[in-house]
Amino acid sequence: MTVAAAPLDVTSLDLGEARAIAAGHVGAGSLPCISFGLVDATGRTAVRVLATPGLSVAEDSIFFLASISKAIVATAVMQYVDEGRLDVHAPLVRYLPELDGGAGVVSAWHLLTHTSGLPDIPVETLRKKRPTYQNTLAFVGASQPAWPPGSRYEYNSAAWVLLSEAMARLSQMPFADALEQRLTRPLGMADTNFDPRQQRSRVVPVRGSRMDNRLVQELLLRFLARAQMPGGGLFGSLPDLLRLGRALLPADGTSGGPRVLSGTAIDEMGRSQADGLTHQGQDGRLHEIRQGLGWRKPQREWPGSERAFTHGGISGGRLWVDPEVGFAFAFLTNLWQAPLEPAIEILEAVYRAAG
Q1: Mean pLDDT, the chain, as a whole number?
Q2: What CA–CA distance (Å, rounded) separates 292 from 318?
Q3: pLDDT for 20-67, tens place per residue?
Q4: Alpha carbon distance 75, 266 (integer Å)
Q5: With CB atoms counted within 10 Å of each terminal CB, which end of the chain scores lower, N or C?
Q6: Among 68, 231, 223, which Cα is nearest to 156's?
Q7: Taking each helix axis from N to C terminus, what angle separates 133-141 and 214-227, rounded to the nearest 10 degrees?
Q8: Contact yes or no for 25/199 (Cβ under 8 A)
């Protein structure tokens, strides 16, 4: 008879190597701070926080999540799929009848896999014009796909406004309210929202890319609060990301933690969806697309099981869920276009500790 392995207990792991790697990167100045943590299916957590002198960072500090927002919104979108209220393959005109034969032919699946063909809004345009939620919705809604949806991959943030608007219509309330009532509040993610200005003292400002000035930081907070960008505008804390990660792990049976999706929906969200598609990277080479529904699949050279799924953000953060090994990993920092290597090196050390 085969005896099932005991569920992983993250508090029993020796994270000395992982912490040493983090300390090395902070000490070398490649990142101003690193906050990382693990959670298992029962809700046990292990957290480590490191920062350069003069930078105040605590376990519950609030960071700009950037594109980790996509993973959070995708999880909320899958709730409607779980309930049978949203067909990911149906044209979005079914839920947003004002859309025409352009954006209206795109489905939620196309948006979640970045194969819609709809145009994005360049970062420089966002910086200069600072569009509102309604401006972005009007721009995307009036756009035409540049290629047949589903036939080509092109990473897109602006088009996610169609997903957020579908959520708003299905819930008959503003998108931000729907996200809070259906996902973040049930999971206790009290710090995850588009407007952290009431908690300014806990916000770790993003460094780099001409954002070190306090006035610029204040303008950024004001813009993101107004824009409510589902593809990249959320703020949140390490404990909040770990709460979401735990909810996406297989139920332990004794944990009693909140669950927001069925196991079937989680498996589908984390399954590779765009097999066969490639994308030309900045290095000029063609790369295999590793894409789930709103989440990314890890690169093949990265650690973890084939069931793992993840998402990062341009400010350096990352959320990683491995249902097979039984833990979620969250990593936060505050540097614009931060290098990817520190998070992956720390994660590799975590997997070594997990055996």
Answers
A1: 93
A2: 15
A3: 999 999 999 999 999 999 999 999 999 999 999 999 999 999 999 999
A4: 8
A5: N
A6: 231
A7: 60
A8: no
SS3 call for 91: strand
Report d(CA 323, CA 307) in Å as an integer. Answer: 6
CATH superfamily of 10-274+288-354: DD-peptidase/beta-lactamase superfamily (3.40.710.10)
What is the residue-wise DSSP string for 37-66? EEEETT--EEEEEEE-TT----TT-EEEEE
Select from 312, 245, 288 the least CA-distant residue to 65: 312
∠ CA 44-45-46, nearest 5°, is: 140
Cβ neighbours around 101 below 10 Å, total: 10
Question: DSSP string covering 159-201, please?
Answer: GGHHHHHHHHHHHTS-HHHHHIIIIITTTT-TT-BS--GGGGG
The alpha-helical segments, DSSP class H, found in the chain are 16-28, 68-82, 108-112, 123-129, 133-141, 161-171, 175-179, 214-227, 238-247, 263-269, 341-354
3-class DSSP state of 273: coil
The whole-angstrom separation of Cα 51 and Cα 57 is 7
**What are the residues whose beta carbons fall under 8 Å from the beta carbon of 275, sequence distance 6 or more?**
289
Computed from CA positions of residues 244, 71, 33, 212, in that sequence, does the dihedral angle turn out positive or negative?
A: negative
Section 317-344 average pLDDT: 97
Q: How many CA atoms lie within 13 A of 330 on its CB side?
A: 28
Q: Please give the Cα distance from 17 to 268 (Å, whole number).
A: 33
Centroid of chain to Cα 273: 17
Whole-model pTM over 0.85: yes
**Per-residue pLDDT at 231:** 97
Length reported for the chain: 355
Per-residue model confidence as pLDDT tens digits over 92-134: 999 999 998 899 999 999 999 999 999 998 877 777 778 899 9
